Amino acid sequence: xxxxxxxxxxxxxxxxxxxxxxxxxxxxxxxxxxxxxxxxxxxxxxxxxxxxxxxxxxxxxxxxxxxxxxxxxxxxxxxxxxxxxxxxxxxxxxxxxxxxxxxxxxxxxxxxxxxxxxxxxxxxxxxxxxxxxxxxxxxxxxxxxxxxxxxxxxxxxxxxxxxxxxxxxxxxxxxxxxxxxxxxxxxxxxxxxxxxxxxxxxxxxxxxxxxxxxxxxxxxxxxxxx
Length: 226
Ligand SMILES: Nc1ncnc2c1ncn2[C@@H]1O[C@H](COP(=O)(O)OP(=O)(O)O)[C@@H](O)[C@H]1O
Ligand SMILES: [Mg+2]
Prior knowledge:
The chain has 226 residues and is an alpha/beta fold. It has one domain (4-220): P-loop containing nucleotide triphosphate hydrolases (Rossmann fold), CATH 3.40.50. The protein contains eight helices and eight strands; from the N terminus they run E-H-E-E-H-H-E-H-E-H-E-H-E-H-E-H. It has helices at residues 16-29, 50-62, 69-72, 91-104, 127-133, 147-160, 180-190, 216-220; strands at residues 4-9, 34-37, 40-43, 75-78, 107-115, 137-142, 165-171, 195-199. The termini are close together. Adenosine-5'-diphosphate (ADP) is lined by residues 9, 12-18, 171-173, 199, 201-202, 205-206.
């Protein structure tokens, strides 16, 4: 069973937090001590912190124990001002917190920031830190126009980085995609990892139990990563 895994997405707002919750719910239902971790969050401005705080609250409330918000999310980057945020990218802090969570819990679901090569304010992608930590990676594919292209490129980049690709989750963020089944079929054929879950379009997914949409059995077949 997976100990630590990193959740990336084909883009921003494709459902990484929703999928992180689904995995946490499924793991907790299976009797695991499981916590969410968001190393780097982004907010549009210091005043408009609601978006990222909601995200941290969701990870916090879905974890099997209630951890302080600054443990779940050590770094917040403020974007949207005229100058770039000068918050120091303290990668040691991100690693220390992850090590701490990994020692105390059976599973840590680590939510990334936007897509795989999304840049931090030091102009480095967070994927560099994921490589340093040698984390297995899960891709959330938001089913929308262009997702087959984005999903393949993301999978190729992760493999190029030498990381284990544990699977992908289809998240139906657009209820109007007429060719949904065909897209899932094509993705299943071209992505080099198993489909671990399929989340339908749901109103208020943040308020639901999503564990039923995740296939943990496929995960248990994989070697245990630490
Ligand atoms: N399966 C779904 N059905 C309906 N809405 C969804 C679904 N998944 C995500 N959403 C909505 O899409 C938005 C982005 O989801 P979120 O998990 O925050 O994405 P990310 O973490 O990748 O930025 C949220 O408003 C969320 O409620
Ligand atoms: Mg999120």
